Amino acid sequence: MVAIPEKYLDLLQQKKAFANLATTMPDGSPQVTPVWFDYQDGLIRVNSAKGRVKTRNMKAGAPVALAIMDPDNPYRYVQVRGRVGRVVEAGADQHIDSLAKKYLGKDKYPFAQPGETRVMYEIEPASASGMG
């Protein structure tokens, strides 16, 4: 695991930046989704619901990449490549609620669907670089 360069940590810890998450489809083609995320203990954490395309692609050990653009300056970004580490359902509902607080200012995730199972993914950075 590598550390994110300090000059980009504001994008991960302070700003409401979205991450464009790239995963790999079973046929090897790329798939990209904008996602909410947080950064804790050197890991980038994202959340999804079972059954979605990115959820099917994000098995433990799967390669992923994220591009996180500064919402205040689109010419400044950090790119992180790594692998999916832990994949957990326990605590995933609380995690999506914390992301709803960060991104929407709401205590509870408002887009939950009946019967939906949330999953949290911890991404272990292997490389990070950026611009700006």
In short:
The protein has 132 residues and is α+β, with helices and mostly antiparallel strands. Helices cover 17% and strands 45% of the residues. 27% of the residues are buried.
Structural description of this entry:
This protein has 132 residues and is of the alpha+beta class. The protein has one domain (6-131): Electron Transport, Fmn-binding Protein, Chain A (Pnp Oxidase, Chain A, Roll). Helices cover 17% and strands 45% of the residues. The chain is built from 3 helices and 7 strands; from the N terminus they run αββββαββαβ. The protein has helices at 9-13, 53-57, 92-104; strands at residues 19-24, 30-35, 38-40, 43-49, 63-70, 73-88, 118-131. Strands 2-1-5-6-7-4-3 form a 7-stranded antiparallel sheet. The longest helix has 13 residues, at 92-104. It starts with 8 loop residues before the first helix and ends with a strand. The model has no long low-confidence stretch (mean pLDDT 96).
Q: Which descriptors would you attach to this protein?
A:
about 130 residues, alpha+beta, Pnp Oxidase, Chain A, seven-stranded antiparallel sheet, globular
What is the annotated CATH architecture?
Roll
Overall structural domain count? 1
Largest sheet: 7 strands, antiparallel
Strand content: over 45%
Order of helices and strands: HEEEEHEEHE
Report low-confidence residues grouped into runs of 5 or more: none
CATH topology: Pnp Oxidase, Chain A
- C-alpha Rg, in Å? 14 Å
The secondary-structure class comes to: alpha+beta
Number of strands: 7
Query: Averaged pLDDT, please?
Result: 96
At the fourth level of CATH, the homologous superfamily is Electron Transport, Fmn-binding Protein, Chain A
- What's the CATH class label? Mainly Beta
Distance between the termini: 23 Å
Strand arrangement in the largest pleated sheet: 2-1-5-6-7-4-3
Helix proportion:
10-25%
Number of continuous helical runs: 3
- The coarse overall form would be globular
